[in-house]
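Late entry, evening session. Most of the bench is empty. Finally got around to the prediction I had been postponing all week. Sequence below, unchanged from the version circulated by S.P.
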Amino acid sequence: GFASAMHVEGSFAMTRVKDEVEDKTRQGLDPRLRELLEDEAGDAPDLVYCDACAQPVARKSDATSINGSHAHQCTNPYGIRFHVGCYSDALGCDLSGRPTSADTWFPGFHWRLATCSGCHAHLGWYFEREQEYFYGLILDRIRQS
């Protein structure tokens, strides 16, 4: 009786504490990422996650076509190949470095590194020119569910 009632009460308290910690964690997120998480509802969220830490980084619905394709096979100057998917936004990515056009895979676009804002894993690149931009995310470093 009493022991099981304490267990149930303790379990409820732990759940409440866990929810409060998650709320505080979510409140500490970049407002854009918090917006991404709060927009999600239902059983099949529209999210793309960092494969390293499972943080949401983009929406599936933000997949876009650049130069006629969503996916591109790209090789850097060191011969390393990347299978890159294009996204119109990636709210869970941080950008670093100065924009450069050196060795760009998309003529006319400058690029910067895009990393997971949670674990800082390199997820791809942010490409920009004038008022146009997109993210090229490395497809084997993200997952959809």
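Two things to note before I forget:
The CA atoms of residues 55 and 118 lie 6 Å apart.
The first strand starts at residue 47 and ends at 50.
Will write this up properly tomorrow.
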